[in-house]
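pinned: reference chain
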Amino acid sequence: MTAELRVDGDRLWSRLAALGEIGAVHGPNGERGSARLALTDADRDGRDLVVSWMRDLGLEVSIDAVGNVVAVRAGSDPAAAPVMVGSHIDTVRTGGWFDGNLGVLGGLEVVETLAQHGIVTRHPVAVAFFTDEEGARFQPDMLGSLVYVGGMALEDALDVRAADDGARLGDELARIGYAGGVPCPTATAPHAYFELHVEQGPVLEDEDVTIGVVTGVQGISWTELTITGQSAHAGTTPMRLRKDPGYVAAAITTGVRAIAHEMGGTQVATVGRCEFVPNLVNVVPSTVTMTVDLRNTDEWLLQQAEAVFEALCAQLAREEGVTISRRQLARFEPVEFHPEQVDLIEATAQRLGHSTKRMPSGAGHDAQMLARVCPTAMIFVPSVNGLSHNIAEYTHPEHITAGADVLLQVVLAAAGI
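pinned: its structure tokens
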């Protein structure tokens, strides 16, 4: 009977829409996104809504000291560790309805489907959402899940300052009412962890594939550079006498792109933020602050990209007479997911009649942190036009339902009857 069990796609979609209206952002062409930066009032309101759904389903809800929320449906074996599903509900400033939210609300749909059909699993089933996955307000990204598995000290996490207003993470947790009493890191690792997510890229749609079977996550290296030169008049200072941090920032931007092109493969490089001071049209800037994001599925190659990037900065600083200081915002090695869990997702999706593709994730996810403590894998569904971190982010309802059906069957297989 359980092999024929399916989720209610309309019910899942309605929850995605309701959560998407909290912090709603509307575009000029009818786009509908969300802005719920971590630990803002909008994040609090989103948390309150999801927790209310968890409690409506009779789940036992706990909140830990960094604000991670875990809701558990009991299993028949009280000694068994839970099979956990989840993701995050915080967004970037121009977020969509699906990034993160699908993994959490897909988990709730799995739990409701089990309850609706009176199915009790041997292992408990837990649905979690983790604090500050995006890293858009507090760095590093995946902060909550990193603390959950013991990869970052709780005290260090609570002292992190917001990039936008300097607020302290621990103070913001208390302000919105989500400084919980459960200790972290977790005392008991999950039996397994599965995360359903939109791809956030164009590959599945381009190849007309319904289910991405995620084999692992790229390594991530985030660096903030502060380039200090000499502010000067734009009209009276000869080019040969300038110490221009704006020029250096531009050269680094093109330089890291060249690194990615020359290395090829899965190497990517991005300058995502660049801020000039004093930011005036007729003044050579005094300082520029910028970020560089390097990623690769191979740790050795990522280290090579970092070395070439460092040499590029040293050369440009020397030639232009500026100084460049560096601050590492995040550094995570590539992660390979558990082979048996990957195989389970692939076989399950194919049994349900879906096309599949094994693929790495180019984005970071809470799953890469959970992989440190338990068998972990991810399920991808297509993103229209490959868009994510964008209010135009969209995934078709039939793909949402397909991914949740795979998640349901995978959870049943892992949790047992």
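why pinned: Residues 10 and 385 are 23 Å apart (CA to CA). The chain has two domains: 2-217+334-415, 219-332.
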